[in-house]
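Entry for the shared binder. Reason: the reviewer on the internal report wants the predicted structure included alongside the sequence.
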Amino acid sequence: MSNGNIALNSAAVRRKQHANKLILVGALGTFVLFFSAFDAAAETKIIFGAYSSDKPSAMVAQVQPTLNAISKKIAEMYGEKVTFRMQVVRGYKKGVDLLIDRKFDIMRLGPASYVMAKKRAPNISILAMESKGGRKTFNGVIAVHKDSTLTELSQLRDRTFAFGSKRSTLGRFFAQLTLTRAGVLGKDLRSFTYLGRHDKVGRAVGAKLFEAGALEGTTFAKLVRKGVPIRALVKFSNATRPWIAREGLAPEIAAKIRKAMLALTDKNATRWLRFDGFLPGNDADYGPTRQAIEENHLFFEGFVGFKPQQQSQR
């Protein structure tokens, strides 16, 4: 064989080897792209909604560790990747509207917000309720200044009072029910207003802007630890907050999230929200909340300008 033919054959071999390499690289690329797409498809993204019962930045710092722990537990239990993207909105009503409109997949609601949402969207479901020392109840507080001479609710007549949001379970509905049962109605107060957040109520009472106010017990304790000069005049209780799945959320996803929540044992993950885990819950747990809402009109009897349809709930 001549040197020319040998050179031609060698070139042909090299071309064939190069072509085989290209085929192999192409196949590997397809293989990688296939499994990358598979991994992306295997990740479930959940939009978690929250409303700012505290400062929005504080809400993110408080909730995110719990969401991370739930995601980790799902991975341990099912080998699946579920990530939560958190969105905080201002106000209870906007949050409930977004849940009902299916813009949020999961939401942490106050009891009265849940009752309102359930009435509008019967197919939303309770994933779990927050546990407070193994219980499904927690306290609200009617607070006064530390130096106040008030010792009982009846003395609140002709006093100024601060409620939380108009949609707050403890900051409005149960507080107004407690006052009503003590014989103190809206018309008996010198004045009252809604400040929107529990922490604002506590600080306003501590600054003597109001003579009394209603707020959540955990927020009350937090403010006292920070030196806000307030004390409890009376305490009352209600069911803890439910975590809700929107209508239409895939049942298998909701079931896995629920089981992961109930299996969560990392108390460090939930301590920023001031609860210690999750417990099973159902709609019957919120019967007292419904009652407080249904009886709320009694607080406004004889109150000039009151229109029941304008009062709403959390």
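Summary line for the report: The chain has two domains: 41-133+241-281, 137-239+290-310.
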